[in-house]
Amino acid sequence: KSSRKMGKYWFDNYKKCRETLPEMVEVLDQVGNDITMENLDIITTIGDIFRFEDRWYLVNKKMISEIIDVFNRAWTKPILYSNKFENKNQYFIHTDLHLDNIVLTSDSKLKLIDPDAFSIEPNIYQHTYRYHTTQDELMHSLHKYFSKVQYEEK
């Protein structure tokens, strides 16, 4: 159950935006502020993969490229989708985009969770900082990972 006001307009926009970003968790139904999502068999979050060295075995070149790709598209695709709104100051964005809201599932897929964090915002000013700092966190995590792995390989 979400504290954010969601209605049919939110649900319709979420489904249409998901067509451009299939990594968004599927919302199957929405009644008032209650949503029913697809069931995910989550192994871990992307944040935890880099936070805990015992999960580094999950990291490989393919996974790294997919993490970077999904994270960046989780920001850009909804903004591009927002061009459909007549009001030039409306953006349908994930307002809580960080590495713990992208998960790795048992079938090796990345999924963007916390769908009720999507909302139509009057501007993206306050959310650009979250994106920027999370991008920095991701790059720092990759730097830490590669520094440690390369040091151990020598």
Question: Could you characterize what this model shows?
Answer:
This protein is α+β, with helices and mostly antiparallel strands and 154 residues long. The chain has helices at 8-20, 46-51, 61-81, 125-153; strands at residues 27-31, 34-37, 42-45, 91-94, 102-105, 110-112, 118-121. Strands 3-5-6 form a three-stranded antiparallel β-sheet. The protein has a two-stranded antiparallel sheet with strand order 1-2. Strand 5 (102-105) and strand 6 (110-112) form a beta hairpin. Helix 3 (61-81) packs antiparallel against helix 4. The longest helix has 29 residues, at 125-153. The radius of gyration is 17 Å and the shape is globular. 23% of the residues are buried.
Question: Which SSEs are present, and which pair or pack?
Answer:
Layout lengths: L7 H13 L6 E5 L2 E4 L4 E4 H6 L9 H21 L9 E4 L7 E4 L4 E3 L5 E4 L3 H29 L1
Antiparallel strand pairs: 1-2, 3-5, 4-7, 5-6
Helix pairs in contact: 3-4
The helicity comes to 40-55%
Strands ordered across the widest β-sheet: 3-5-6
Q: Which segments are poorly predicted (pLDDT under 50) over 5 or more consecutive residues? A: none
Mean pLDDT: 92
What share of residues are in beta strands?
A: 15-25%
Which descriptor suits the 3D outline? Answer: globular
Helix/strand structural class: alpha+beta
- Number of helical regions: 4
Number of strands: 7
First and last CA, distance: 50 Å
Characterize the biggest β-sheet. 3 strands, antiparallel
Helix and strand string, N-terminal first? HEEEHHEEEEH
Radius of gyration: 17 Å
Key traits:
alpha+beta, 4 helices, two-stranded antiparallel sheet, about 150 residues
